[in-house]
Amino acid sequence: MSKNYDIAIIGGGNAGLSLAKSLAQSDIARKIILIEPIPAIAKQANWCSWHDDESLKKNSNSIKGVWDTWNIIDQDNVIEHRSHNYKYACIDAAKYLGELENCIIDQNVEVLRENTQSISIKNNKKVIICESRTIIATHVYDSRPPEIKENSLKQHFYGIEIELKPGVKNHETVTLMDFRVDQKSGLHFIYALPFDESRIFVESTVISENLNQKSWYKGMILKWLENQNLTCKTIISEESGVISQALQDNHHTGIHQIGSNGGATRLSSGYAFHNISKQIKLLSENIKANNYNVPDVMSNYLINMDLIFNRVLINNPSLSVDLFIKMAKSLSGEQFSEFMLNKANFNIWCKVIMRMPKTPFLKESIKIFLD
Q1: Looking at the domain assignment, is residue 293 inside a domain?
Q2: How does residue 252 score in pLDDT terms, banded at 50, 70 and 90?
C-alpha cells in the first residue's frame, strides 16, 4: 500500500515535530506525514541551555528547573557566572515533545508509528519504504540524528537523576563543568543539576574519540557524589547519549537534512536546542515562499572556529581543561551565555581569542587551511 504526500518528515524529535507543527499551523494547505516509531512521551531526557524571559515563558509547561547561577570548577578555580538577561533552564524532553506531538495530531498531521527502512528517488518523487507501507512524497525532511563515525570527536555521557540523603546544601547553582575527575579517558567533567534539596541530576560527560562502558560513567558519578558528601537514596531515571562533534555532510541531493544532521549542533559544545528552533523558523518561512531548502544556522566563521577549537582539544590533551577555564575566566556571565547561544559579538570573540594559547591554535588553523 502506498500513499502520496506533499511533505514527509522522518523522525519525531525536536526538529521533526517542530517543523510538522509549524507547517500544520501555517495558512498553506499541504498533506503532511511524520514517520516516527516511538511516542514522544517515551523520550525521557533533560535538555538544558540558557533562556531569556520570552523563551522561559514559551516553554513553561515543560521546564523542570531554572537557575540564576552556574559554575565551572577545576583543582584551582571556582568560576561562578550569573546573567541578567539569561537563566539556565532544564526542559523535560518528553513533556516538550509530547506537546508538539499532540498539537500536530490535533492539526490532522498523520503520524506513522514505524521505522524508515529506505529512501529512494524515482521520477522526482521520494519513495520511503516503511515496515508496512510505502510513502511517496514530493519533499522529504530527515531529522534523524547523524551517524556516529568511528575515530571522530564525540561528546558521550551517562546521567542519573537521584533522590538524595542527606540533601544538597546549595541547590541554586548548576555545576556546569567540574573537572576534578579522572582525565585519562579524554576531557572529562561532571555536570550536576540540583532540582531541589533532595533531588539532583548528575552526568558524567567525556569529549573524546572513544566511548566508555556504562559502568565507568556510573562509577565516576558515584565517586563525585561521595566527594560531595552526598548519598544516593533512590535512582529516579537514567539517560545516556552520544553527540557527534564532527562536521556533517548535510547537503544530500533530493533529501533535506534538518536538526543535528542538518548542521544545527554547535560543534564545540554539542548544544542544539536554540539552533534547531532558529532553523525550523527560517525553514518554515522558506517553505511558505516555495523554497524548500534548509537554511544554514551556523556561519562559516563559527564552524571554522569550532573546528579549530576541537582539533586543539583532541591534539593537546594536557591543555584541554585549561582551555575551558581560560574561556570562562575571560567572560562575564552575560557574555558567556551569549557565546554559548551563538550570539557573541566581536568584543566577546576577541576576549576569548586573547586568552587562548596562540601556538596550538595557529598550528591547527594552518592545517585546516591546507586541508
Answers
A1: no
A2: low
C-alpha distance from residue 220 to each of 181, 210, 215, 223, 312 (Å): 7, 17, 9, 5, 25
- List CB contacts of 60: < 8 A, sequence separation 6 or more: none
CA 127 to chain centre: 30
How many structural domains is the chain composed of? 3
Residue 325's CB: how many other CB atoms inside 10 A? 20
Q: Report the predicted TM-score, pTM, of the whole model to 2 decimal places.
A: 0.93
d(Cα 200, Cα 221) in Å, to the nearest integer? Answer: 12
Mean pLDDT value of segment 113-129: 94
Q: What is the pLDDT of residues 305-341, one digit of tens each?
A: 999 999 999 899 999 999 999 999 999 999 999 999 9
Q: Is residue 62 in a domain?
A: no
**What whole-number distance in Å separates Cα of residue 241 and Cα of residue 182?**
20
Kindly report the CATH number assigned to the domain that includes residue 278: 3.50.50.60
Based on the domain organization, do 25 and 39 belong to the same domain?
yes
Question: Which one-letter DSSP state was computed for residue 234?
Answer: E
> E strands along the chain, which residues?
2-10, 32-35, 46-51, 63-67, 69-73, 78-82, 87-92, 110-112, 116-122, 125-130, 134-142, 154-164, 173-178, 187-194, 199-208, 232-244, 256-257
Per-residue pLDDT tens for 331-350? 999 999 999 999 999 999 99
Q: Are residues 276 and 192 in the same domain?
A: no
312 and 358 part of one domain: yes
Residue that has been written with the C-alpha cell 529512501 in this structure:
119
Is residue 257 predicted with pLDDT exceeding 80?
yes
Q: Are 361 and 309 found together in one domain?
A: yes
Question: Of 153, 143, 176, which Cα lies nearest the Cα of 276?
Answer: 143
Q: Which of 110, 123, 118 is nearest to 134 (CA)?
A: 118
Domain carrying residue 208? 154-244
Apex 17 CA angle, 109 and 55, nearest 5: 130
Band of pLDDT at residue 166, cut at 50, 70 and 90: confident
CATH of the domain at 191: 3.30.9.10
